[in-house]
């Protein structure tokens, strides 16, 4: 019987989507006491970074695990990649211990993106809560870079306490320089905080945008998005001009492992950004 | 051999080999000649896999000759029950499907994806070296051919191609087998996936045991099938042979153990996501995940990142997973689907409804395994029927 | 254009569809008022005999909690209503209200209004309907704040 010749079928790194690319940590910035931003540079110097606002990468910490984290940097920057994350589980806690010079594995970018090209001449109302501001920051960079194309841009942001507000300095800068209306509210505050205390919902009710010509982008805890959508509906914003970023358990980000299934779709490829009318029938349904 | 009985191919002329058979032509082989076909496959370095009897069930394993097949065995299946019983006619394929499906070869239950080594803070990923395989699947049922096609869509036709599946899938030789008896939990007729093997095979066999004859009517599906067949002894089939085979299969189609009304089933399930029946099935479902393990189309997996004690070597593995496991939908401190109700609903709605939106077909091929291997005999066809009938009664009453 | 007290009240969303015949009485209960920054409009335990329309500025509703110190649980801003404790006995404020900046408001004599509502149940119902709305909104908000949705979740 003839022996079978064994030949290597080595999968090239680029053809096997489960193999991470190596990136080096260039900077670590602490945003709040449990949230930090990593700036990553590809180990392969020629690689150019390219993504669309709303997309995410799978970040691998050697030997610990891999998690999906939205890209939080500017889409115009091609030399480094930014990810802002809370330190909540095993992998993100391990990630929080990494220092400049350490390495991390990156797969992606994956998923759908916020609608930007088609929305010239509209008002934008951006509604975010907690860490949800991070996946929206690329949108803000994009909008600020061509501010003249849009009319009113309103950012509504809810956080736990004033100490948990993300990107405070940048928000101030945008508010001043780019005609961005920023309204921040917190769940509670020590006396001395002179801003809003309360939930985002009443801010949506009163925000200065024209419902007949507005695109709404939402990212934050599902319950916050639910209430915010109710307010947007009350003001007459149609379902096909509301976009939200959903989250589910992800293992492969390729549409195989099945963990991120959300109704008839996969959050890793049909989302994470969804136009609301596409998920209106399952959104808010319990245990879907 | 009495008058009126047909002679066997061997008696008519020792293993006469006509010129290379054409596509869609029908040939005849005896069981001995089938064995010779298997030997050709083995000689051509195929890893020949087929049904075998092991620990009271028919499972897929290496076969080196027709003797390794479940000769003279049949299966009795019903909800939560599977038994092998002897049969008197010496049939090679006289059963339907067991607890395993062919997916275990193309989508292995456990697979290492890569290794990584760390030194001086830097780490390097070493992709897995995979040997190309040449599988020959012998005894693939019509429903299983459809299941292969369904998994092809998942792993090969999406935005990303799974290299493991692709590697194993490329060089497969398939010998399909028509079912000449329907299983106790089968409903391929309802799903239009059998019992006759449709497209996707290299060769298809119908086992005919009648009037003292035991032979296989062979259909050629591809050039590769024709080529292989030309290396093994066989004869041309007569129209009577072909008709006999077709009748057997048509009979099987009429005796399915279950039926499923698939008319508008996707929409029907979408209308009934809060139906009381889900609570009722939740009272019985153990979330044991047997159904997902035996199902030939279920494809969920888990990714595990491991490291050794030194912390310098790491590996990534992919393993079968099930939407019934506790942490399958875990996010932000708890699972989105934590109750048996929501998990069963997710599984059944994915299989019969969401799959259409995701892949354009049903996810179910009607093989009945989930019914047979459910410890409490939950029957997907029954669940669908109850929900559908409640709508009919509601609209009749209203 | 001079905004008369009546026009300010009539145009306020709170009084949308309010029966015209009650407006003069309501207007009679109201007067303009101004507060400087960091001023306690009322304190926990004080008699609750007023409620306020905030015309400009902002007010923080706060409690003093032993281990947290003075903590703001809600802010009330321009166009919003401050105070509902006047509706139910024992008619005492449950929280402190402190201005965050210079604030202008309309203050309503709730003691007088309470008496009139007892006499005229139609008026009473119209007022209670509207305050029930405010309380529901605050309850929804409070529940969301309680859920600590941005909080730690591992």
Poorly predicted parts of chain C: none
Number of helices of chain C: 4
Radius of gyration of chain C: 17 Å
Mean pLDDT score of chain C, rounded? 91
What do these coordinates show?
The complex is a heterotrimer of chains A (288), B (398) and C (154). Chain A is α/β, with parallel strands linked by helices. Chain A has helices at residues 90-95, 137-145, 168-177, 201-206, 222-234, 276-279; strands spanning 21-32, 35-42, 56-61, 65-70, 81-86, 103-110, 123-129, 153-159, 180-186, 189-190, 196-197, 214-219, 242-245, 261-262, 265-266, 273-275. Helix content of chain A is 17%, strand content 31%. The N and C termini of chain A lie far apart (55 Å). Chain B has two domains: 11-254, no CATH class; 265-397, no CATH class. Chain B has helices at 9-12, 31-43, 103-106, 142-156, 163-169, 188-191, 223-229, 239-254, 265-271, 277-284, 290-294, 340-359, 369-373, 380-397, and strands at 26-29, 47-54, 57-62, 73-78, 81-86, 110-119, 122-127, 135-140, 173-177, 203-210, 213-220, 235-236, 301-307, 313-320, 330-331, 334-335. In chain B, the strands form four sheets. An eight-stranded mixed sheet of chain B has the order 3-2-8-9-10-11-1-12, sandwiched between helices. Chain C has 154 residues and is an alpha+beta fold. Chain C has a single domain (5-147), classed as Jelly Rolls (Sandwich), CATH 2.60.120. Chain C is built from four helices and eight strands; from the N terminus they run H-H-E-E-E-E-E-E-E-E-H-H. In chain C, helix 3 (110-119) packs across helix 4. The longest helix of chain C is centred in the C-terminal third of the chain and has 27 residues, at 121-147. Strand 10 (189-190) of chain A pairs antiparallel with strand 5 of chain C.
Index terms:
heterotrimer, B: 398 residues, alpha+beta, 2 domains, eight-stranded mixed sheet, four-stranded antiparallel sheet, 33% helix, globular, disordered N terminus, C: 154 residues, Jelly Rolls, 4 helices, 8 strands
Give a nutshell description of this structure.
The complex is a heterotrimer of chains A (288), B (398) and C (154). With 288 residues, chain A is α/β, with parallel strands linked by helices.
Write the layout of secondary structure elements.
The complex is a heterotrimer of chains A (about 290), B (about 400) and C (about 150).
Chain A: E1 21-32, E2 35-42, E3 56-61, E4 65-70, E5 81-86, H1 90-95, E6 103-110, E7 123-129, H2 137-145, E8 153-159, H3 168-177, E9 180-186, E10 189-190, E11 196-197, H4 201-206, E12 214-219, H5 222-234, E13 242-245, E14 261-262, E15 265-266, E16 273-275, H6 276-279
Parallel strand pairs in A: 7-8, 7-12, 8-9, 9-11, 12-13
Antiparallel strand pairs in A: 1-2, 1-6, 2-5, 3-4, 3-6, 13-16, 14-15
Chain B: H1 9-12, E1 26-29, H2 31-43, E2 47-54, E3 57-62, E4 73-78, E5 81-86, H3 103-106, E6 110-119, E7 122-127, E8 135-140, H4 142-156, H5 163-169, E9 173-177, H6 188-191, E10 203-210, E11 213-220, H7 223-229, E12 235-236, H8 239-254, H9 265-271, H10 277-284, H11 290-294, E13 301-307, E14 313-320, E15 330-331, E16 334-335, H12 340-359, H13 369-373, H14 380-397
Parallel strand pairs in B: 2-8, 8-9, 9-10
Antiparallel strand pairs in B: 1-11, 1-12, 2-3, 4-5, 6-7, 6-14, 10-11, 13-14, 15-16
Helix pairs in contact in B: 9-12, 10-12
Chain C: H1 5-11, H2 23-29, E1 30-35, E2 40-42, E3 50-56, E4 58-65, E5 69-77, E6 81-82, E7 96-99, E8 103-109, H3 110-119, H4 121-147
Antiparallel strand pairs in C: 1-8, 2-7, 3-6, 3-8, 4-5, 4-7
